[in-house]
Amino acid sequence: MQIQTALFGQLDVASEKIIHFSQGIPGFENLHEFAIVILEQTRPFLWLQALDEDVALPVISPFDISPDYSPQIDDEVFSTLKISREEDLLVLSVAVIPEQISKMTANMAAPVLINIADNLGRQVLVEGGDYQVRQPIFAEVSQKMYREKSNAGINETKK
Asked: How far apart are CA 32 and CA 15, in angstroms?
């Protein structure tokens, strides 16, 4: 399937890579088909690109922000997503990246869960816990990017 996007230009999305969100995503309940777009230049951010409309949401692994991230999620959610193996679960947080990037945030209170084996997705609201809807993430993202750049530099000198 080919789609035209404002951010990425024309994308070729293989049918086996389309992720179905039966309930849509809060705020975008009418959008049900998405693909993950990975660009090296925007790491650690990935993009959840809607296929029904030109909407792309920046997402990040919540573990990049908080390595001990462990929200309590109802078993019914895992059942709905048909998740039987932990390695089939991809957990992402929707990010907001404003013009003043030092004010970027991630929604740690409503993770996006994706069954990567069956291409099923759902965003869920975590009940209780200390997770914020607008968790500041600039410091953590900057540190991660610095570490990755430093590690790449170390590897390059060893070659």
From this structure: 14
Q: ∠146-147-148 over CA atoms, to 5°?
A: 90
User: 85 near 45, Cβ under 8 Å?
Assistant: no
pLDDT digits (tens, 9 = 90+) for 61-81: 999 999 999 999 989 999 999
Residue 56: which of 15, 112, 95, 17 has the closest Cα? 95
Identify the band that residue 143 occupies on the pLDDT scale cut at 50, 70 and 90.
confident
Report H helices in 8-68. Answer: 62-65
Six token digits for residue 64 = 């990049």
Position 159 scores a pLDDT of 42
Beta carbons within 10 angstroms of residue 50's beta carbon: 21
Helices assigned H by DSSP within the chain: 62-65, 75-80, 138-158
Q: 10 Å Cβ neighbour count for 39? A: 11
| Residue 153 structure tokens | 């530099």
| Rounded CA separation 102/116 (Å) | 31
